[in-house]
Amino acid sequence: MTRFTFAATPLFAAGLLACTVFPAAAEEAGRYTMQPIEDGFLRLDTRTGAVSVCAGEGKDWSCTPASDERSELEEENARLRADNAVLREQVEELGAKPRVTTPEDVDAAMDAFETVAERFGKIIKIMRREMEELDEELNAPVEDAPEPSEGEPL
User: Fold this and answer.
1) What local confidence, expressed as pLDDT, does residue 3 receive?
2) Helix, strand, or coil (residue 104)
3) Quick one: which H or E segment has residue 37?
4) For residue 146, is it within any domain?
5) 58 — alpha (psi -120 to 50), left (phi > 0) or beta?
6) Domain limits for position 44
7) Largest Cα–Cα distance in the chain?
8) 124: which of 18, 21, 79, 106 lies 20 to 30 Å off by Cα?
């Protein structure tokens, strides 16, 4: 019986080791998905979302990270946020506050618009009067002009 115990101990240790190692390997088994492409595969890491292009011949294969537009956008977003923070600090240093339109501002704008509209109306009245006078002059009968005879051109 001691022989059995002695022989079972390494097997037990190997089984215990397998139980602790293989669940992690089982989790890793579904971590990557592969999609065939021309001259290789795309490998997607389902945990991180990283994409790699895998290519090779025979036994020699290698995967290189694909260009990641998302990381570029995140970097650009971070840069713009930093720029925005710097600009906000500069505005605070200058003591300027964003101006809010008040009812007085609206009233002043309406007064200016009314002045422009009144002036425009006056210009229209003057132009109408001048056009009527010009129309009367052009349509007035000509008194001193001789009448053309039948054979003369107009």
Assistant:
1) 44
2) helix
3) strand 32-37
4) no
5) left
6) 31-66
7) 153
8) 106
Tell me if 59 is assigned to some domain.
Answer: yes
Tokens standing for 72?
């570029």
Report the domain count for the chain: 3
50 domain-assigned = yes
> In sequence order, what DSSP letters do the residues of 46-90 get, joined into one string?
TTT--EEEEEEETTEEEEEEPP-HHHHHHHHHHHHHHHHHHHHHH
Q: Which of 66, 83, 115 is the last residue of a domain?
A: 66
Ranges of residues in the chain with a pLDDT under 50 are: 1-26
Query: Rounded to an integer, what distance in angstroms lies between the CA atom of residue 4 and that of residue 51?
Result: 51
CA distance 38 to 54: 11
The pLDDT value given to residue 144: 65
Q: Is the pTM of this model over 0.85?
A: no
Position 114 scores a pLDDT of: 97
Backbone angles phi, psi at 95, to 5 degrees: 80, 10
At residue 82, the pLDDT reads 97
Q: In sequence order, what are the residues at sequence separation of 6 or more whose Cβ sits closer than 8 angstroms to the Cβ of residue 37?
A: 53
Q: For the chain, give the number of residues.
A: 154
User: Is 107 inside a domain boundary?
Assistant: yes
- Residue identified by tokens 């190997």 is 14
